[in-house]
Design brief:
The chain is built from 22 helices and twelve strands. It is of the alpha/beta class. The strands form two sheets. An eight-stranded mixed sheet has the order 7-6-5-8-9-11-10-12, sandwiched between helices. Strand 1 and strand 2 form a beta hairpin.
């Protein structure tokens, strides 16, 4: 059948606004719902990895099922029946409004809560989230069938969907969370969902009416061949690699560059922005420039990004990585957009994309932490992205074998040298210059994509090995919570002699250090030094604390236990089992072995663990879980403080370690103290002579009565002061927290 004249097609701009607006609102609601429900669940289940893993699997699985439903509905059912079926599902989903946790629901205390969590998520948001998940492919498929003059290529509407995701991503932490609490967020989201349902049904009405005309574009679309396995695999690879690369870069930034709160937003913004660009009308112009520019951007990235993060300011490293990431995802997503199929296979295209994106997220979340002891999936995906550049053709030829074998030989040579020569660091500059020279060589091979990719991988591998040597890493392992490393450093001791000591790092944040000599191995250092606030507290109450019950949230290397006395009972709470393993290993640290004979270790979320303790049990409770970028906000809410004082004796002391490079945590505690009528003192300790082991640190002590803290305030051991007053932010509760308000 011949295609009718262009004049017969509908050219109304209002149709584009309707369908694009529906996709925009749908994506916005999805990106708001995930953090909203994460905050709702935090006080109930804490911050354990099982919680977040389960939530991630639930969201990704439901998203995939939504795409699968859209595919089968649009390919197996006629359009009017599609509308009726989807309308019925939307009506049923309204029963879940307003979205909220079911009343009088509590997680099981004597069994694994995974099934409970999945069931709770399904009851609370399952159907609305499923409907939102179906919107992008289904509404685009409907648009392809309404007879609009752009219906033959509706993929540009996907840009509107990602623009909605991008807006929600940026607005939640910077606008929504600071402005309103969770209760109002739930109500607002429910109203937004009602608007979305109305828009979806309006789109359905437009489709229904279009069936009465003869300008349905699908009637005139030429027949296309069946999708080949090669084509599907190519789409899957182009979607899988950027998804994995996104999570890999996010973890790498916080682990090796800087622990800055909300820094994860930047890579995700770049990722979503790439979809907006490539599925717009500009991709045909932009994509060739991205392909040409990628090797140029990779020159400084390969040369500097993995050798030593101390060589450049962290913002310079961040820019290098973000530029490399931007070009990688732009090339991959640009290839996806360039190779998009006709509207006949639209839902198949999006189904494969969603499945590959889900696999990428699962690989980084569930597989990589178990097979790698560092964030090595990130450089692997950089190489994989280069192998997906246009022009790569794999064939068993002599040239292809040379392109692969030569980089592998370079890697093997590096392994042999690094393993057999212990004095390589004296040749550090020569090795670095050699790697930079290889980087320039890799640029010359940019027209041979396979050789370019594998040589890039070899250089990055050698640079990572050199960085491991220069950091003197004794042990490194990875868990859900990040990368933990034990490193050996050197100091000049009191006798002006070089002395080795061990340090515990979580990413870029130091969590403790210990000198190795027997005569100083039980002296606490870093944030817990004897001249510092904790040393002052224990010395002040030295005559009265002989029989104290003491709780410590956050183990670190275990340095605080060296203040323990024979008659005291200490309970140590730590959420990461690997921290306990490292602190208990005498090859690295001896604090627990030598100082904590009367201590009990409890693994799990501290707030949930403390709820199980008897009331009025502790004389001192130390909260030491806030020095990194990922602050557990549920441990800083008003409800949390009430719990702590329920567990403290009437004259008990609550101590907070609030040393943080980026967050002004004293604002939160000051407002709590004022609102709950508590006595509070703060010391922002700066040693007279800072060293590697005696560092500046900030502590706050809180009690119900000023008399409890009077001995500390009157002691001349440190500069304890009353907490400053703040009036520019609301008190944090389980319903309201706002990280932005406490940025330094």
């Amino acid at each position: 059948m011949n295609q009718p004249s262009v004049a017969n097609f509908d050219r109304r701009l209002s149709l584009i606004i309707l369908f694009a607006g529906t996709l925009f609102i749908s994506a916005s609601l999805m990106f708001v719902l995930q953090p909203l429900f994460g905050k709702l669940l935090l006080p109930l289940l804490g911050g354990s990895p099982a919680v977040w893993n389960t939530c991630m699997v639930f969201y990704q699985s439901l998203l995939f099922l939504g795409y699968l439903y859209a595919h089968f509905l649009s390919t197996r059912v006629n359009q009017r029946r599609q509308i009726m079926i989807h309308a019925a599902i939307i009506m049923i989903s309204l029963l879940a409004l307003p979205v909220a946790l079911p009343e009088n629901i509590a997680p099981p205390t004597d069994s694994n809560p995974t099934f409970w969590l999945c069931w709770t998520l399904f009851l609370a948001i399952g159907l609305p989230y499923f409907v939102i998940s179906t919107t992008s492919p289904l509404v685009q498929k409907w648009f392809a069938n309404i007879g609009h003059h752009t219906s033959h290529d509706p993929y540009y509407l996907y840009a509107a969907s990602n623009a909605g995701s991008l807006l929600a991503l940026l607005s939640y932490p910077f606008l929504l969370e600071p402005a309103i609490g969770l209760s109002l967020q739930k109500t607002s989201w429910s109203l937004g969902y009602l608007i979305l349902c109305a828009l979806i049904m309006t789109c359905a009405i437009v489709l229904w009416k279009s069936q009465q005309t003869k300008t349905n574009i699908e009637d005139y679309a030429p027949e296309t061949s069946t999708l080949s396995l090669r084509q599907k695999s190519h789409w899957m690879a182009l979607a899988f690699v950027p998804s994995s690369l996104l999570l890999g870069l996010t973890n790498f930034i916080s682990t090796d560059i800087a622990s800055v709160p909300l820094l994860w937003i930047i890579p995700l913004t770049v990722y979503l922005l790439s979809f907006v660009i490539v599925f717009s009308k500009w991709n045909d112009i932009i994509h060739p420039w991205m392909v040409k520019g990628q090797p140029v951007v990779l020159i400084p990235f390969i040369a500097y990004a993995f050798i030593n993060p101390a060589d450049l300011p962290y913002w310079a490293y961040l820019i290098l990585h973000l530029l490399a990431f931007f070009f990688a995802v732009m090339v991959c997503h640009g290839e996806l957009a360039k190779n998009r199929p006709s509207t006949q296979h639209l839902t198949s295209f999006y189904l494969i994309m969603s499945f590959a994106g889900m696999l990428g997220g699962m690989f980084n979340t569930f597989v990589a932490p178990f097979i790698f002891n560092g964030i090595y999936e990130y450089p692997l995906m950089i190489v994989a992205a280069l192998l997906l550049r246009p022009g790569v053709v794999f064939s068993f030829s002599k040239s292809m074998l040379l392109q692969i074998i030569l980089p592998l030989m370079l890697i093997m040579t590096g392994i042999i040298i690094y393993a057999n020569y212990t004095d390589l660091l004296q040749y550090f500059d020569i090795i670095v210059i050699s790697l930079i020279a290889l980087t320039l060589l890799s640029f010359l091979l940019r027209t041979k994509p396979v050789a370019f990719a594998f040589l890039t991988g070899a250089i990055i591998f050698l640079a990572l090995g050199l960085h491991g040597l220069s950091s003197h890493t004794l042990y490194q392992e990875r868990t859900f919570f990040g990368v933990l490393a034990v490193r050996e450093s050197v100091l000049t001791n009191e006798q002006q002699q070089a002395e080795n000591y061990h340090e515990l790092f979580h990413g870029t944040t130091k969590h403790g250090a210990e000198r190795l000599a027997n005569d100083v191995a039980t002296i606490p250092y870093t944030y817990y030094s004897r001249p510092g606030p904790m040393g002052q507290l224990f010395k002040t109450f030295d005559t009265t604390n002989q029989h104290w019950n003491i709780g410590v949230v956050g183990l670190g290397a275990g340095a605080l236990t060296c203040y323990a006395k024979e008659q005291q009972n200490w309970t140590l709470y730590e959420i990461d089992p690997l921290v306990v393993d490292i602190a208990s290993n005498p090859d690295y640290f001896h604090y627990l072995q030598r100082c904590s004979q009367h201590s009990t270790l409890r693994i799990g979320d501290a707030r949930l663990s403390l709820e199980k303790e008897p009331n009025q049990h502790f004389d001192l409770l130390v909260m030491d879980a806030f020095s990194s970028d990922s602050v557990p906000t549920h441990l800083l809410t008003e409800e949390a403080l009430n719990l702590y004082f329920d567990k403290l004796k009437p004259d008990g002391i609550l101590a907070f370690h609030i040393t943080n490079r980026h967050l002004l945590l004293k604002k939160v505690l000051s407002i709590h103290a004022e609102h709950l009528h508590l006595a509070a003192l703060i010391q922002e300790f700066k040693p007279q002579q800072a060293t590697e082991l005696i560092v500046a640190t900030d502590w706050v002590v809180i009690a119900k009565k000023p008399e409890t803290l009077a001995p500390l305030a009157m002691s001349r051991l440190g500069n304890w002061q009353k907490m400053p007053l703040y009036f520019d932010m609301k008190a944090w509760t389980d319903d309201y927290t706002n990280i932005i308000s406490i940025w330094k």
